[in-house]
Amino acid sequence: MNAYRLYYSPGACSLASHIALEETGAPFDTEVVSVRERDNYSDRYLAINPKARVPALAIPGEPRVLTETPAILAYLARRHPDAHLLPLDDPLRDARCHEWLAWLVGWVHGVGYGALWRPGRFIDDPAVHGGISAHGRGVIDAANATIEASLADGRKWAEPGGHSIVDPFLLVLYHWGAAIGLDMTRHAAWSAHAQRVAARPAARRALAAEGLRSA
Prior knowledge:
Organism: Burkholderia ubonensis
Keywords: Transferase
Strand order of the largest sheet: 2-1-3-4
Radius of gyration: 17 Å
Distance between the termini: 34 Å
Protein name: Glutathione S-transferase
CATH topology of the largest domain: Glutathione S-transferase Yfyf (Class Pi), Chain A, domain 2
Strand content: 5-15%
Number of strands: 4
GO molecular function: transferase activity
InterPro entries: Glutathione-S-Trfase_C_sf, Glutathione_S-Trfase, Glutathione_S-Trfase_N, Thioredoxin-like_sf
């Protein structure tokens, strides 16, 4: 294998890795693993990634795929420094990017959308799933307000120093907010940010490949 291979599900969190790959300019191909169709639980995919999650990144010369969005994004940023996906020469600014991702992936995605869409991950009893989902929506609403406040100071990207691996994941969450019926246009700064991210050539290519609208 002479190119990366990204295993992704259209519109899932794997979109951030898809955009980052496009940003690097490195050769890669893709394979759709539809979460909606439960392809991630197929024997074939479980042999590739026993965690049954997307994304997964196959790396040339590496026998094991790389999994987990923060790990994939950090790897791509460090492996392809000319893409300027992390401020690698500034430890604090680099840490700020990881601070963003830890919260977005762990809290907003994992707890907020995890509770909303998959309450059974938290507790088996269906009788309480409605309450768990409602709690997840509350987490999302509060997080969206925090994101908007962070972006409302006039910055162009998530971190003032420039575009980074954080920005594609914010676009994912913006899309998800719209998908669950939230009026995302009331978040003016985030809406402008989403349009900037989606307008980048790399994002346009990834969005088109996944059959998604821009923002």
